[in-house]
Amino acid sequence: MTGILDFFAQTHTPYLHATGRSGTALLLEHLQVGKGGRILEIGFGTGQTLVEIAVRRPGNELFGIENTEGMFRSAQRRLNLCGLSGIRLAMAPEGGALPYPSGFFDAVIAESVLAILPDEDIPLLLESCARVLKPGGLLIINESLWRSDVSRETMREINQKCIGLFGIPQASDQFAFPDDWERICRNLGLSLEKKQHLSVVSARMPVKISYALAVSGLYSSFGRLKRAVHPVLSKQAKDFRKAEQQFKSYGLFLEGVLFCFRKG
Q1: Given its phi and psi angles, is residue 133 left (phi above 0), alpha (psi -120 to 50 degrees) or beta?
Q2: Phi–psi pair at 62, nearest 5 degrees
Q3: Which residue would you say has higher pLDDT here, 191 or 207?
Q4: Which residue, of 22, 25, 160, 261, is most buried by count of CB atoms within 10 Å of its CB?
């Protein structure tokens, strides 16, 4: 079975994070950056959030970095079709350090990206985020983390199954809970301004008429059509749905959490 990230890239799937579009809407509520500010998205996937920011927060310089080639190509096509070729995309270098100068960004964002990295890479990437932020800059992350009643043994069991079935873990079992993320960021000089559990939050994206948003929607729709009619993609979709059934016996084990940190 192909990895699920490659499948999502081929099918142009947007909003690959907790609560989907609602989670991105909440993130954008906190993304308060003045005109001319620089914003970096880590792990931009198929590019939908970058389109949302470009349309809803105009006048900023947008950057994105991604470590999956399929996602990079899918996002590049989406942005080009939307007429947003000015957004600067880059593939992540080996080692995980962000290839940008210190104090370069007004905000860094990530949606369900950091917690699926190898455990040893998470503190290093958060340290790199803190380095590239300007004083007063924002780090906003929307992550799916383990619920407090899940044991470490169950976490490891679920992650082992997920890696075998989907090619990625569910979430780090070393940095499993919100307190772990707060501690790392606090030690890096990042103060917590807001923490919201997405299961109790319902944010809505304001209606906005835009050529870029309309084209981006068509691009996502074409991906759903490909998934329905392409024999290989259709089979992969069925295989992934079948694989997901193996986790029903665990009940609810993840919850989305949005953090908003500010660099001192």
Answers
A1: beta
A2: -110, 140
A3: 191
A4: 261
